């Protein structure tokens, strides 16, 4: 697939990028990287995507970086932003790499997914590659890993209701036996669910699962509310 590259000189104005990040120190660090190593003249900073502050008419931007925690992992809102700012390339920024979120970012047409856990030079290289017209996703990422039930702005069931309940128990530090008692299922079933949950949310162990659990909980609540509103 051919990707159009936004050349700042084409528009006869300084190159401008957009960073959506609620933490000033993080926003400042990203802005510094963009100016010092990515050839960006001006960096516009926003602390949210709410309220219609970001207008397509102010673009196109050479690159747009959106912190997923800042938007509370609202992939529906991110997809709408990507469409609205097209052809400006959008990069989803996460605090740690997560295959499930990288897959969703690719599906909603983000140009890249990067984590703040990488070294500064690698981060700069990843952003530069997107500015030059390439896509940038974690090594080993495969488009076929995208959750099969994600359909654009519709619903995403990364976890089933039962798997979500198991994840909530894992986040509380419950053992498999304790989860089995609480949910009224066998220990063997719990083990199966835990294995599936870890794989689907991109966690290597129960500790990592507990760290990312709030993100999936917030995402699930928001989607439930969206679906309920749509049924009225």
Uncertain runs with pLDDT below 50, 5 residues or more? Answer: 1-12, 148-156, 222-232
Average of pLDDT: 79
User: How many strand segments?
Assistant: 5
By DSSP (H or I, 4+ residues per run), the number of helices equals 8
Strand order of the largest sheet: 2-1-3-4-5
Main sheet properties? 5 strands, parallel
Helix content: 40-55%
Strand content: 5-15%
Query: Class by helix and strand content?
Result: alpha/beta
Summarize this entry quickly.
This protein is of the alpha/beta class and 232 residues long.
Q: Could you characterize what this model shows?
A:
The chain is α/β, with parallel strands linked by helices and 232 residues long. 46% of the residues lie in helices and 10% in strands. A five-stranded parallel beta sheet has the order 2-1-3-4-5, with helices on both faces. α5 (161-171) crosses α7 (187-201), α5 (161-171) crosses α8 (206-231) and α7 (187-201) packs across α8. The longest helix has 26 residues, at 206-231. The model is unreliable at 1-12, 148-156 and 222-232 (pLDDT under 50).
